[in-house]
Amino acid sequence: MEEVEPMQRQGIQYLATVLLLGGAALAPQRVEAQCYEVSPKLTDICGQSSESAYISSQVMHLRVVAVPESSGTTHYLLYGYPNSLDVFKLSNPLAPTKVNSSPIRPAWYIDEGNHTDLTDHLKAMVVANGFPYAFAPLYSWGWDWFEVGSSPKFMNSGYHPKGSVKPGYVTAALLVADNTAYLIGQRLENSSADSAVKIYTVSTFTQSKWSAPRAASALTNYAVVEAGRSSDPAPFNTFSLSSTLAYLTWETGGKRFLLIRGGSQAVLVDVTDPVFPRSLRLVASSFNPGDPGASQVIVAPELFTGTWLIDAVRARLIVASTTEPKVSFFDASLPPSAGVPSFTRIGQPLAWLPAKPEKFSPYFAVGGDILYLGWSDDQRYVNLGSNTPQLLPEQEGITTLPRQCAYETLGGEKSADSAVFVRDGVHFIARNLNSSGEVLKISSSCLSTEPRPNLSVSGGSAGATCGGSGVKGFPGDTFTITNESAGEWVDAELYVTYPGTQQRQQLPANWTPTNKTYVWTAPLDGPTGTYKFDVRVFDQSGTWYDSWNAQYNTTQSVTICGDPEAKITYTPTAFLTGTPLSFSAEGSEGHPQNVGGPKFTWLFASPSVSEAPVKTTADSPSFTPTARGTYWAVLIAHYHHAGSDQLGNCGQIDKLDVQSFVNDQANWTTRYDACTAVSFDSQPFSVGAVSVTQNGSSAQPFQVSKPVNLSAPYKLGNGWNATFAWTVKNTSGTVLSPTATPASQAGPADSNVTGSIAASALPAGNYTVELSASARSGS
Questions:
Q1: Could you say which of 229, 390, 461, 465 has the lowest number of CB atoms within 10 Å?
Q2: What is the tens place of the pLDDT at every residue in 477-500?
Q3: Cβ count near 722 (within 10 Å)
Q4: pLDDT in the model for residue 70
Q5: Does domain 455-560 have CATH number 2.60.40.10?
Q6: Architecture of domain 685-777 in CATH?
């Protein structure tokens, strides 16, 4: 075998130091290396010996966010200083354009004495790709929203405290799902004393535009995560809310997860529907197996040896050790046979520096297939796209930072909080070097191109809750299967394994690198159970890679439940005698179907033995109750798959007509059927609560010199006549009888009866308002 020479380290050719002051685009600067290309410096204070330069212009945090604009998606770099930031447009990442003329400061300033300007108030901006607003933690100054784009600005709508607050605002998370943006954090609604983690609904995407995010005073729509409160179920009540929390979100197996870390504990939360978060597991470095809730605890001390990141592409938790220069990888995917990620170790830890520094607290960031790691004068870049994570080549000036700065006591040039982003398939790192900043491009030729098969599945039905793994649904449901394979592949095949079999069958997916989705419909006639989906991808040489191979193990599951429930909806919801009601079974779960026969069989049972029950097979029947009392609407929905019939509540109704209907085999098919029933009380007349107002307000006391308005809603059935009368009383008896409008009314009607107490008609005092209402049958 021919020996390959190792790549030689090469020097970097720097242009003159550049401090970007205007909005002009900078030309890219090339380095003598195959893997790396770097932009000019965006700012550079390395040559300045003044402490004031570092107080105002030391680079603290960099974040990159992709924002939708009329011309397409644009990447912006949020370039943070201790108390201000610049915004760069990255249309050409190697020639960034600054869009603001001078550093943008928060909308408010709170004087904290001599250390005000020495404090890093502007913490790392919280961003989500596709959302044009960033959450800006301002530490002891509260927090604000920041609008990202060609006219960036703080929105002055966040929490502005009257004085500095402790603990300050440092972390939060943004989650974008189903055209809605959610903010995850603590104490965000005007410094609430409640430290519970909440998921706030802050913005919606309508008419091709995101609404402005809710102000702090309007954060009233939120869900509370069960974690850290004494009232929360065990073991989640043991989680501590006192430390600064870290939030990680990712999607896997058709579900969306949130991991909240505080110290040596974390809570795993299902946020597939962010409005209804479900705490699933407590992840801890240790836990007493005899304590309450121990069965819902994942004990994994190796996870708490460092700081965390989520590799969302591969659903992996990355742990960067704070005791030695190593990173470890843990499985955060949703296994086909489990309901939660296992967080088991994947492979061996990766050593990214040859020796441990004396003091060590590394920076790291991940995006696409690149992991950035940095500490002091060293940086390393890891290719996560290879089947085993690999360090990219080292190079002087890129992976090592040799420059000495004039004010080295403040750190000089060193690794700091940076950001990794992908634009048009190319990986970049917005490099924060403490005294300067730049954008680094990583050549795609340096990344592994070997395919790695992977799938994701979404769809199904929320009502499908039977046992089984993966995404769940009913026969006839559709599921979107997406080819998530990494690397360079040219063709792919999709396979399905039916429940109870071992044979894979190919599906007509016709996948290409630009057409990666396939919609699969679960067979209406079954079988029910767990279907397994696999992908085989091919590279240009024709070599194939299979998801079922133990090296990848990325098989995805779909469980088809055989027990959909029948559902009845009806309008109107007020059951007035003599008023037609419209019923529908279209809300039934799954896909009712009866080949050669009706999808539904209905029974309407009267409260009167003299009134015969009504049977129909219409999809959406209409029924008019003609008697007073309790009626029953019974529905049997018919399906095309085999299964044990579901009686629901139909077998528990003590009414002869209903029992006869349920017991009559002629109303059931030989396939799966589901029954449900609802009762409704038919009454010809109803009156709501009396309302007493003055000038539109119910606040009392009222003024004698102004009229008082009386009102009450009522409903009246067809064939009935109602009469109304108002009286106003005090302790001596009736003192006034305002005219009722209407005084009488023939049904059907759905309106309000009103009255009025004229101005100065009563002396000051306490009164009782009564409405007398009665109805009689017109016959």
A1: 465
A2: 999 999 988 778 999 999 999 999
A3: 23
A4: 82
A5: yes
A6: Sandwich (2.60)
